[in-house]
Design brief:
The complex is a heterodimer of chains A (113) and B (109). Chain A is mainly β and 113 residues long. Chain A is built from no helices and eleven strands. In chain A, strands 2, 4, 5, 6, 9, 10 and 11 form a seven-stranded mixed sheet that branches. Chain A has a four-stranded antiparallel sheet with strand order 1-3-8-7, with no helix packed on it. By secondary structure, chain B is mainly β. In chain B, 0% of the residues lie in helices and 56% in strands. In chain B, strands 2, 4, 5, 9, 10 and 11 form a six-stranded mixed sheet that branches. A five-stranded antiparallel sheet of chain B has the order 1-3-8-7-6, with no helix packed on it. In chain B, a hairpin with a 5-residue loop joins strand 9 and strand 10. Chain B is globular and about 40 Å long. The termini of chain B are far apart. At the A-B interface, strand 4, strand 5 and strand 10 of A face strand 4, strand 5, strand 9 and strand 10 of B.
C-alpha cells in the first residue's frame, strides 16, 4: 500500500540551527502539507503546497519556515533558525485532490536544545 | 472558541462494550469531516471522510455518522487493539484541516 515517508524520524538540534525535514508523498498525489503536533497538544496545520507554490499557510508558518519541492518526489520543510518552541512532531501529508482522503506520514520528531 | 470539540477527552471501556465518541464543529462551509486514529508516537491513520449530513461510513467495528453540527464515531464490540487516540478534523473553505484535541480510548481485556 502506498505511503508517505518522512526522514529523519528524530532530529536533535541546537537553538539557532537550520533544520530540513524531508518527505516523499504518495506518487500520484498533487497536494502536499505539513502539520505539527507539540507533545500533548492537537495537530496543527502549517502549510499546503500545490502546483509548485504555497496555496495556504497558517499563522504558525512565519518567515522562519519555508517549503520546497526540489525534484519530482521530495517535499521539504526548512526551519531557518530553530527555537525551543519549535520542538514538536512534524507530519507530512498528501492527497490526490483538493478534498478527500488525506494521508499522513509517521512524522519527524524535532527536539531543539 | 475551538472550531472542533471532541468528547469525552478520555474513555475507558471493557472489551466488547460498545460506545460512541462525539465531535462537534462550528464551521460555516464544511468541505469534509475526517476521522483519524493515532497511536502513541505515530502519524494519524486515515479512517473516514464524511461530506454531508446524513452520510454514514463503516469499517470493521467502526461506524462514522454526520449531522449538520456533529459527528459520531461508534465503536461496536471493541477489542484491546482498538485502543488509541481518535482524532476528528474539519476542512472548511481552504486546504488545511482543523483538528480537535482527540479522544483517548482505552479498551481493557
Amino acid at each position: 500500500e502506498p505511503e508517505v515517508t518522512q526522514t529523519p524520524s528524530h532530529q536533535v538540534t541546537q537553538m539557532g540551527q537550520e533544520v530540513i525535514l524531508r518527505c516523499v508523498p504518495i506518487s500520484n498525489h498533487l497536494y502536499f502539507y505539513w502539520y505539527r503536533q507539540i507533545l500533548g497538544q492537537k495537530v496543527e496545520f502549517l502549510v499546503s503546497f500545490y502546483n509548485n507554490e504555497i496555496s495556504e499557510k497558517s499563522e504558525i508558518f512565519d518567515d522562519q519556515f519555508s517549503v520546497e519541492r526540489p525534484d519530482g518526489s521530495n517535499f521539504t520543510l526548512k526551519i531557518r533558525s530553530t527555537k525551543l518552541e519549535d520542538s514538536a512532531m512534524y507530519f507530512c501529508a498528501s492527497r490526490q485532490g483538493g478534498t478527500g482522503e488525506l494521508f499522513f506520514g509517521e512524522g519527524s520528531r524535532l527536539t531543539v536544545l | 472558541e475551538d472550531q472542533v470539540t471532541q468528547s469525552p477527552e478520555a474513555l475507558r471501556l471493557q472489551e466488547g462494550e460498545s460506545s460512541s465518541l462525539n465531535c462537534s464543529y462550528t464551521v460555516s462551509g464544511l468541505r469534509g469531516l475526517f476521522w483519524y486514529r493515532q497511536d502513541p508516537g505515530k502519524g494519524p491513520e486515515f479512517l473516514f471522510t464524511l461530506y454531508s449530513a446524513g452520510e454514514e461510513k463503516e469499517k470493521e467495528r467502526l461506524k462514522a455518522t454526520l449531522t449538520k453540527k456533529e459527528s459520531f464515531l461508534h465503536i461496536t464490540a471493541p477489542k484491546p487493539e482498538d485502543s488509541a487516540t481518535y482524532l476528528c478534523a474539519v476542512q472548511e473553505g481552504a486546504d488545511g484541516l482543523t483538528f480537535g484535541k482527540g479522544t483517548h480510548l482505552i479498551i481493557q481485556p
